[in-house]
């Protein structure tokens, strides 16, 4: 407010008065407020501390305006106690009275859990697995109930989720699928060309896309896109007490919120997978034409022979399982969100990471099992 | 003492196609407590948000401490921001931070005090609003409604503002905590010489705190003045609002109500 450099008549000032030779009386004047003291706190505290050793009294009646910061500064300078011979304005009495009784030391923050971090991480994972299993069991019970009470089936929620997770994700899955198919075909074609085994580009692409890459890519994209949204939705419903509102109405969280999402993704993901796989193969076809000069018609004709029917069925079933898994993991983390923003952020992050990890683990498991079966 | 802290002139606000304020004028004097009342949808909270600079009006001007919001230099705006405190209706505590860090945040942001001083300032601010030290490490979700309001008040006041905005200060509190909270605000108002602008629906709060009352209706301020004067006004909203409270809001009733609050405060100590 004042031009820099000009003396401020209201600045906090501390002066020794009178009592030549003997211990002096220190007088304070001006504004002793947070704004006036900002930046000068340490300097004034030292000054008061030094003065406190030889002072016979303190005259604070010259202080125009005093707030908690100013009072705290004096209090600290005095060594956290009231000095002798203190003269105060009556309206400033209360604040020093409050300082004398206020606990100024914050309690120690609670200690973290004892024991090695690895042990707690393992316990945490076990807890998640247990909880998710319980959720899955509850969903099974809900499905049985739906089977016997078909009128309770939440068709509207299911169809809304199919639309949101399925139809609305077609552009992004299409774009990513096309580019991945293109890249894959280019790289394979280069290698195959050196052996003169050009036609096998169809086999490699066909098997890889239908059986592995299509379901996987679609699942990862949907986990990032719809899984995170599901976790965030359930988390915000916890924060705003909407989950509690549902509970008191006697509406089950699992039947109304979780099961429609799980079923919807189990339906939507196979469809998205078919779309992604087709677009990936189209990208591959284009690359084969450019790199190997292979006629697109030849590519399409060779495809049914290269990809046995079992691979199609396997890819389709895997996609359905991935979809259910992504939604289950997302809802599990959403329901565990505590009512604060930090927990919401952490829950959404863990949800996406865990669902992608779970999808890849399930995929590996399926690959091992079916290699023994011989498909 | 009688200079204006906030000057609102010719305010015209449109929200989602609805005209909320049309040529609204209002001034808040320094050192007074002004209460805004009005039916739901009358634009009280919107007016509060405009005074805080959280929204910009379509036309008109809001001057806070002499600086026109939205049209002043960044330095002036910062000055205004450091001289005002806001108590939001739900407290608006940072849910990811414990109580202590919530109150410490504005001080750390200021970056003008050493760490151990900040610690003592926060604990003193918490003690001033009646929060015991053992609650300092709790998360906002673990607090009761009354404690959330107290912590939010401590956060609003920790920088020593001269202007305090209260949005429904007693909403969601039981009568006993509401009374205690009002007493707390009265005490702090006296010791910190606060100018207070508040939105409220609670007649008891009006009686205990308000120096002047402004009634919002028909997109403008239809009346402003001391509570007994406003309570006598012949307007459907005002009649309903003070229904059953007329005697409490008359001069004599007001005096005895404030006296009883004061005595209760002494008794409580």
What is the gist of this entry?
Chain A has 375 residues and is of the alpha/beta class. Chain A contains 13 helices and four strands.
Can you characterise this structure?
The complex is a heterodimer of chains A (375) and B (269). Chain A is α/β, with parallel strands linked by helices. Chain A folds into two domains: 89 residues, Transcription Regulator spoIIAA; 247 residues, no CATH class. Chain A has a four-stranded mixed β-sheet with strand order 1-2-3-4. In chain A, α5 crosses α10, α6 runs parallel beside α10 and α8 runs parallel beside α12. The termini of chain A are far apart. With 269 residues, chain B is α/β, with parallel strands linked by helices. Chain B is 43% helix and 24% strand. Chain B has eleven helices and ten strands. In chain B, the strands form two sheets. Chain B has a six-stranded mixed β-sheet with strand order 6-7-8-3-9-10. In chain B, strands 2-1-4-5 form a four-stranded antiparallel β-sheet, covered by helices on one side.
Task: Write the SSE topology.
The complex is a heterodimer of chains A (375) and B (269).
Chain A: E1 13-17, E2 25-32, H1 34-37, H2 41-54, E3 57-66, H3 68-77, E4 86-87, H4 93-101, H5 117-148, H6 155-165, H7 170-195, H8 200-239, H9 242-248, H10 253-292, H11 296-306, H12 309-336, H13 341-373
Parallel strand pairs in A: 2-3, 3-4
Antiparallel strand pairs in A: 1-2
Helix pairs in contact in A: 2-3, 5-10, 6-10, 7-8, 7-10, 8-10, 8-11, 8-12, 8-13, 10-12, 12-13
Chain B: E1 4-15, E2 18-29, E3 33-38, H1 44-52, E4 59-64, E5 67-68, H2 74-82, E6 84-87, H3 99-110, H4 115-128, H5 145-157, E7 163-167, H6 175-192, E8 195-199, H7 203-209, E9 212-217, E10 220-225, H8 227-231, H9 236-241, H10 246-249, H11 251-268
Parallel strand pairs in B: 3-8, 3-9, 6-7, 7-8
Antiparallel strand pairs in B: 1-2, 1-4, 4-5, 9-10
């Amino acid at each position: 407010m004042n031009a820099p450099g000009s003396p401020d008549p209201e600045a906090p000032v501390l002066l020794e008065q009178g009592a030549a030779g003997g211990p002096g009386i220190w007088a304070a004047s001006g504004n002793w407020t947070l704004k006036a003291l900002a930046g000068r706190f340490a300097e004034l505290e030292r000054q008061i501390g030094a003065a406190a050793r030889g002072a016979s009294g303190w005259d604070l009646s010259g202080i125009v305006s005093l707030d908690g910061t100013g009072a705290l500064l004096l209090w600290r300078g005095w060594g956290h106690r009231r000095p002798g011979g203190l003269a105060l304005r009556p309206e400033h009495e209360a604040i020093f009275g409050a300082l004398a009784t206020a606990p100024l030391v914050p309690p120690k923050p609670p200690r973290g859990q004892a024991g090695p971090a690895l042990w707690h991480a393992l316990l945490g994972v076990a807890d998640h697995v247990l909880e998710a299993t319980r959720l899955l069991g509850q969903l099974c019970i809900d499905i049985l109930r739906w089977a016997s009470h078909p009128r309770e089936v939440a068709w509207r929620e299911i169809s809304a989720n199919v639309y949101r997770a399925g139809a609305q994700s077609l552009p992004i899955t299409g774009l990513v699928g096309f580019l991945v198919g293109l890249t894959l075909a280019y790289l394979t074609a280069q290698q195959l060309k050196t052996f003169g085994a050009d036609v096998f580009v169809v086999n490699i692409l066909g098997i890889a896309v239908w059986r592995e890459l299509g379901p996987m890519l679609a699942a990862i994209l949907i986990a990032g896109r719809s899984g995170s949204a599901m976790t965030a939705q359930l988390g915000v419903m916890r924060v705003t007490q909407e989950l509690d509102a549902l509970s008191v109405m006697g509406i089950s969280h699992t039947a109304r919120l979780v099961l429609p999402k799980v079923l919807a993704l189990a339906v939507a993901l196979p469809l998205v997978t078919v779309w992604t796989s087709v677009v990936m193969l189209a990208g591959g076809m284009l690359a084969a034409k450019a790199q190997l000069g292979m006629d697109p018609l030849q590519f399409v004709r060779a495809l049914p022979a290269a990809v046995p029917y079992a691979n199609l069925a396997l890819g389709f079933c895997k996609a359905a399982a991935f979809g259910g898994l992504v939604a289950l993991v997302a809802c599990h983390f959403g329901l565990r969100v505590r009512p604060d923003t930090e927990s919401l952020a952490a829950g959404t992050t863990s949800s996406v990471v865990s669902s992608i990890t779970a999808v890849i683990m399930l995929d590996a498991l399926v690959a091992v099992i079916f290699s023994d079966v011989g498909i | 003492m009688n200079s204006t802290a906030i000057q609102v002139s010719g305010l015209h606000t449109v929200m989602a196609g609805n005209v909320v304020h049309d040529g609204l004028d209002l001034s808040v004097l320094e050192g007074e407590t002004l209460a805004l009342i009005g039916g739901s949808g009358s634009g009280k909270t919107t007016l509060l948000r405009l005074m805080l600079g959280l929204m910009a009006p379509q036309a008109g001007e809001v001057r806070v401490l002499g600086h026109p919001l939205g049209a002043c230099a960044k330095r002036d705006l910062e000055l205004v921001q450091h001289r005002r405190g806001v108590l939001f209706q739900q407290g608006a505590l940072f849910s990811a931070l414990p109580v202590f860090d919530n109150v410490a945040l504005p001080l750390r942001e200021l970056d003008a005090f050493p760490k151990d001083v900040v610690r003592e300032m926060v604990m003193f601010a918490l003690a001033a609003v009646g929060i015991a030290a053992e609650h300092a490490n709790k998360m906002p979700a673990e607090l009761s409604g009354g404690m959330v309001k107290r912590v939010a008040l401590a956060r609003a006041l920790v920088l020593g503002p001269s202007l305090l905005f209260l949005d429904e200060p007693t909403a969601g509190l039981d009568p006993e905590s509401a009374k205690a909270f009002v007493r707390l605000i009265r005490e702090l108002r006296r010791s910190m010489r606060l100018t207070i602008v508040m939105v409220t629906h609670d007649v008891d709060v009006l009686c205990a705190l308000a120096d002047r009352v402004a009634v919002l209706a028909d997109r403008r301020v239809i009346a402003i003045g001391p509570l007994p004067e406003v309570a006598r006004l012949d307007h459907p909203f005002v009649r309903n609002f003070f229904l059953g409270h007329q005697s409490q809001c008359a001069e004599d009733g007001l005096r005895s109500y404030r006296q009883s609050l004061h005595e209760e405060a002494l008794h409580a100590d």
